[in-house]
Amino acid sequence: MNIRSVIRGVGAYLPERVLSNDELSKTVDTSDEWIRQRTGIARRHIAAANETTTDLACSAALRALEHAGISVDEIDLVILATTTPDNTFPATATRVQARLGITAGPAFDIQAVCTGFIYALTQADNMIRLGQAKCALVIGAEIYSRILDWEDRGTCVLFGDGAGAVVLKAENGNGAEAGRGVLSTTLGADGRYYDSLYVDGGPATTGTAGFVRMQGKEVFKHAVERMSSLVAGLLEDQGLTTDDLNWLVPHQANVRIINKVGEKLNVPPEKVIISVEEHANTSAATIPLAMNHAVERQLFKPGDLLGLTAMGGGFTWGAALIRW
Length: 324
Ligand code: UT7
Prior knowledge:
Elements: E1 4-13, E2 17-20, H1 21-24, H2 32-39, E3 43-46, H3 53-68, E4 77-81, H4 92-100, E5 107-110, H5 116-129, E6 135-143, H6 153-156, E7 161-171, E8 181-189, E9 197-199, E10 212-214, H7 216-237, E11 247-250, H8 255-265, H9 276-279, H10 286-296, E12 305-312, E13 316-323
Helix pairs in contact: 3-4, 7-8
């Protein structure tokens, strides 16, 4: 039997508090004009003091389950992509599992920074196709506001808090389901770039959580190259071209990166999902947030081909082709 993982539901959650560019410019030397022009970001959401990554993840997961029409009793795998776990251990995914009342199967976190959601999706897809899970919750959730140096204008304007989730279900690939689901995935990493985008703290170094440090221009250059070549490679492997792609769903870090990736791939702007304006870079959460943005607008139609692509700290990178 040819088992495929099909996305049954998508959900997202953004904290209530909105921090506008203008408000930020009162505390750090920046402006709404600079941020919009250089990044396309208009605002970001900031978690309340008592909100945790678990809270954000659970809110997004519950919405994805509701959208899927699937009860928690069916879930037998929870993978949470996050860079900002509630505690150093155990995995925040276990807390999410307990909060949602899930008792079946494994629950673990994945740390691949902005590529985290693609890493998590790939892992869930592999487990489903191997028969190790039947219905997975794949979540990206982050509270970057707690690891930002709010005096560093080169980073603090770029990130935000948020969560997105999908429900991935095993289907036998027959009948109405034929051809649907995750077609292929690819992952990579090059640890020689560890210091180009990192957090200057951690349990085994400073004993503190630390702050994001980034060589913006270097990350920018690599992101454009990687995110475009990954999708081109996956399409080629499947005997497809960019003309077959209905939607490009890139990691939402900077609208200039997204536009350049679209240009390199020859994908017209109307086929590129962009939601970064609304929530800034939420790291592992941006791809499911962008998917949710598209689903709310009913953009994806059955049979559409989606290309997901991301690049982040590590450097790590990954992409996926999905038949909706
Ligand atoms: O998921 C991966 C995570 N990271 C990213 O995707 C980020 C990738 N990098 C980027 O998006 C861009 O490199 C940035 C948005 C971070 C910066 O854009 P840039 O066009 O590369 O600007 P830059 O770093 O060359 O800075 C240009 C100028 C500098 O001033 P001078 O030296 O020209 O006088 C900066 O000091 O802009 C200044 N600048 C700012 N000005 C106002 C840097 N940050 C700000 C700011 N507000 N927030």
